[in-house]
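Retry 2 of 3 after timeout on previous attempt. Resubmitting structure tokens to design endpoint.
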């Protein structure tokens, strides 16, 4: 009888712990689900209103579009030439991502794998540049673009965005590369690899989570950079899609259906890029931050 009582007493603590874990898990998922609804519903609201007329959006924007219309999407391509904006944004943002990953990866390789005099000073300068606001560099950057005849060209937006995102990429990639064992590098040299081959065939594949994390953030910042697009690029033939959105209300009145359709089309590339690299984002950000 005493043994049974002891057995029951031993089971009770484990049951209490299990119930606490279960309640905390339920609470965590409830909070996450509630928070996700704020983003999901906002996206649904935009897409839903893109299938309505402007008057219908103004009268009842929360009503589901039971009889959808597609004229807003055709107008987006015909009236504001959103297709050209797509091409310009993808050219500029894609070039920025490529240059940032290439230059940032090489710089991160040097900072993370070599010990040299002034290394800590370089890190301090990189961290200090994060404190400089973009507004403070607009005038000198614009003067350089005019002097080099890069203004109102694709390269006139690619260079400033590359310079602006390079520091972030270097710090993220260097933090991750510093976690890679030195033995892997030594084995590559024994097999006859040079520095470039080591970076391309060994460090880059191993550091793919960090490169993927940096690429998605750089792409988003470049793709959504309305401030730089309005200042450095004013020519219609090279304007990115975000700058076209700013003209809808001023150029075509308050056509809210057209605006919702244009915003919905703008979100598509971001979702596609995120779907391809989402599995690397968390691993790339946390592993380098914890071990670096």
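Retry 2 succeeded. Sequence:
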């Amino acid at each position: 009888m005493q043994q049974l009582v002891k057995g029951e007493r031993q089971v009770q603590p484990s049951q209490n712990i299990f119930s606490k874990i279960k309640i905390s898990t339920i609470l965590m998922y409830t909070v996450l689900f509630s928070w996700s609804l704020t983003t999901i519903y906002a996206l649904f609201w935009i897409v839903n209103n893109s299938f309505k007329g402007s008057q219908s959006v103004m009268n009842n924007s929360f009503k589901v579009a039971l009889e959808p219309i597609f004229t807003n999407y055709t107008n987006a391509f015909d009236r504001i030439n959103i297709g050209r904006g797509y091409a310009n944004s993808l050219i500029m943002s894609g070039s920025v991502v490529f240059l940032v990953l290439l230059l940032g990866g090489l710089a991160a390789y040097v900072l993370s794998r070599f010990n040299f005099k002034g290394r800590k000073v370089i890190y301090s300068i990189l961290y200090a540049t994060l404190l400089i606001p973009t507004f403070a560099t607009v005038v000198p950057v614009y003067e350089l673009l005019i002097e080099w005849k890069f203004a109102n060209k694709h390269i006139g937006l690619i260079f400033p965005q590359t310079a602006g995102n390079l520091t972030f990429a270097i710090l993220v990639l260097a933090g991750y590369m510093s976690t890679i064992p030195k033995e892997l590098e030594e084995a590559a040299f024994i097999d006859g690899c040079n520095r470039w081959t080591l970076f391309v065939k060994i460090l880059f594949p191993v550091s793919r989570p960090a490169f993927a994390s940096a690429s998605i953030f750089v792409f988003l910042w470049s793709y959504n950079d309305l401030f730089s697009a309005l200042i450095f690029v004013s020519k219609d033939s090279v304007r990115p899609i975000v700058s076209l959105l700013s003209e809808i209300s001023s150029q075509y009145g308050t056509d809210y259906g057209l605006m919702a359709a244009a915003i919905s089309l703008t979100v598509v590339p971001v979702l596609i890029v995120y779907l391809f690299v989402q599995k690397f984002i968390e691993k790339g950000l946390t592993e380098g931050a914890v071990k670096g």
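Attempt log closed. The longest helix spans residues 2-49.
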